[in-house]
Specification:
Elements (H helix, E strand, L loop, with lengths): L6 E4 L5 H11 L3 E6 L12 E2 L2 E2 H7 L3 E4 L5 H11 L4 E4 L5 H5 L3 H7 L4 E6 L14 H8 L1 H4 L14 H24 L3 E6 H6 L7 H6 L9 H5 L3 E5 L5 E5 L3 H10 L18 H11 L4 H9 L5 E3 L3 H5 L2 H5 L3 E3 L5 E3 L23 H7 L4 H9 L5
Parallel strand pairs: 1-2, 1-6, 2-5, 6-7, 7-8
Antiparallel strand pairs: 3-4, 9-10, 10-11, 12-13
Helix pairs in contact: 1-8
Amino acid sequence: MKLEGIKVLDLSQFLPGPHLTMMMADHGADVIRIEPPSGEPTRSIGKYQGDTTVWFRNTHRGKRSVVLDLKRPEGVEAFMRLAADADVVVEAFRPGAVDRLGVGAAAVRARYPRIVYCSISAFGQSGPMAARVAHDLSIEAETGVVDLNRGADGAPTLPCVPAADMAGSLMALTGILMALLRREKTGLGDTLDISMQDSLVSWLVNIVSPVFAEDRELDTTTERSLGGNAMYNLYRTADGRSLTLGGSEIKFAANLLTALGRPDLIELCTLPPGRGQDPVRAFLAEAFATRDLAHWEEFLGGIDLCWAPVKGVHEALGGAHLRARAMRLDFPDGQRHLGIPIKFADEPGTVRPIAPRLGEHTESALAEAGVDLAGIERWRAAGALG
């Protein structure tokens, strides 16, 4: 597999870091999850399937678990021994926390300059908001994304996907792989400062034009991808379900409106997003409300058109296409996992569905790092190991 031979020490918790290191594990990296004595929080968050939570299993499969108390000098010493042949370190504490513990980028890379050291935080390691604590919702709110998600009453609604977490995860993975590629030429690693807010901001490219071009706030009722375009919108059906139109190119508008017997409305779809398209939106809302979703699935299936029914997550993950793409995996023992989105023709990734028990690999990982039994017992007696 692509990352075979790469050793990763993961100090992060919850979602961004564990998700990115799981993707590395799926592609062959040896990921050692450094857990505190209390364990990774997601071991006990959410629904259980068997003896592990679904969340933990889907971020920690294929990893090894080592328990170190980094608040003890012996724990720091043990970490540095593990880092001696590591390629990557990932952490997601508040800025400055790892430095106080003695395992920050400066300390680690001073001893092992080949290491790629990645710090993931809410707002980055610098700037006036760097020290603020935040999870995904607060970051999305600060970035303007929550304001873009408004319900029928016009008020902001809770985002249902942790976009800041996942953007941070993917940007961190990309940065780590870039640094590893560069190391092949220079022999040196690097230090990455990944802000989840920075990562999410970079995703705003398709909606930021009013801010940059006209120096104004977005109008969430009229912008192109926020409801202002009749052909990029949500519509209710007679049975209380919904469908989406997701392609605003004029050819799609012509195909749909001709099939619905209203070619006279095609010209309005050439207007800028906003009130000028109100007649088209009103017609489509009225038309789709006359029949149930099953009818429209059959009707629209014969038209060259960007559209999709609105599905629940259970329905979506049960669909034939995601199963065919191996994005939902059902194992014989009843475990269920999300699949691997990065698909190689050669050396594809492999889901190893077993999640580690807390501290399961503490002794074996330290032994591999050259720590003898006496050293392990000394550190354990000091309360540094679990």
